[in-house]
Amino acid sequence: MTAYGHWIGGAWRTPEKGHYPVVNPATEEVVGEAPESTRAEVADAVAAAQAAQDGWSRTPARERAAVLDRIADLLTEHAERLLPLLQAETGATTRVTSAMQLPVAVERFRRYARGAMEPHTVPLAPTIGHGSPLAPGGLLGAAAVRRPVGVVACITSYNFPLVNLAGKAAPALAMGNAVVAKPAPQDPLSCLELGPITRRAGLPDGLFNVITGEYPATGEALVSHPGVDMVSFTGSTVVGKRIAESAGRSMKRTLMEMGGKGAAIVLGDADDKVIESAVGAVGSVWSFHSGQICTAPTRALVHRSRYEEVVARLTDYARSLTVGSPVENSTDVGPLISAEQRERVEAYIAGARAEGARVAAGGTRPALRPGFYVAPTLLADVTPGMAAAREEIFGPVVAAIPFDDEDEAVRIANSTPYGLHDYVFAAGAARAWALAARLRSGNVGINTAQRHPETPFGGFKDSGVGRDGGSFALHAYSELQSVVWTA
């Protein structure tokens, strides 16, 4: 078992306050020990980032791209060691770990190696400037240029720790920024492992720093530090709002990707093929990382004419899944991240039952010891006002809600505080497109739960502020500067 230090200024730093244990959600055994931060250590990480950022911002884009490509190479080279660590600290199944936890992180560094080479200057048409007390007249040229923001605090979520950090750090570094990362306390070890990998790849010391902590004080110290120019956050809406308040006091740029309560709307014209796609998409709430996905379609809104059919299919789907140890290849549904999260999810199920929902599948704790398991649960006959229909549960729980017409479907879909990712399943693409325009959601999938990696990603309402993904992430981690000159 490894006791990690902070990664500050290109070196390990022994923590002044010691360590806290990181627990495997499947075995309840300690995976490793993460460092607890002090305010002074956070300040040291920010100072290291500040000292390194200016030189990196003036480094040629081709050199920045080469470093990011080498980081991707080294992540791949170290896969044999990193994959077991990622699985142990997240509790993800073998399928999710091998397909999503590391390969997507690699691809994100590759994507933003290419992104570093994208043009960041937009030439503007010349214009005649008339003389004024400010300056004489003449022909004016101009350009809008994207410049680095400076020091970026990257605060990440526990469901995909390395993927989430790569999605922030890679575009930030590509644009010439420096990074101070603060991973989620439940599973920060793979993010700490990224520190020496960036150094081996040739990233100058101080440009990538990782500080961790079990308690909110670490993140609070980072967000409030005057040397931080931008905060990029992924996590719960409650925490995100506190971060936004703190960042706003010093006018820091923010990128906030928060909670979701995705609606999968199944229209009455859906044929068998579309219904099958809808059931598969909604079933991913159970089979894909135990529902610990902010984009998950956790509400199945089904036209009353197809409602019982879809509920029956979802019930069969849920009951067919194998709940068990994530290291077993036969396992579909692994544990939740912690005992606290399991209790939270179970409380939502009990609350829905008490409010009159019908538990069509699951609803009881699996007879598995040890581990923080919740059975795939389908709540049928849910009404829009129930907590299970309005609040993010972040577990393997689906709420099925019938509707009578499209207007009602839109009202229900838009009735939660969230607006991150919704889905429309219909036989007619034009009808689905028109319906998508009425959804207050940053992302809409039509007859699919797939995401396109180049689309802008983010949410409406309490689901966040700003967009990343593709070239839009390069925009997010930069400031626009207008440059004007006389011809």
From TrEMBL:
SUPFAM superfamilies hit by this protein = ALDH-like (SSF53720)
- One Pfam family hit: Aldedh
Gene3D superfamilies assigned to the protein according to its UniProt record, in alphabetical order: Aldehyde Dehydrogenase, Chain A, domain 1, Aldehyde Dehydrogenase, Chain A, domain 2
Q: Which UniProt keywords apply?
A: Oxidoreductase
Q: Where is the Aldehyde dehydrogenase domain?
A: 12-483
Name of this protein: Aldehyde dehydrogenase family protein
| Species the sequence originates in | Streptomyces gamaensis
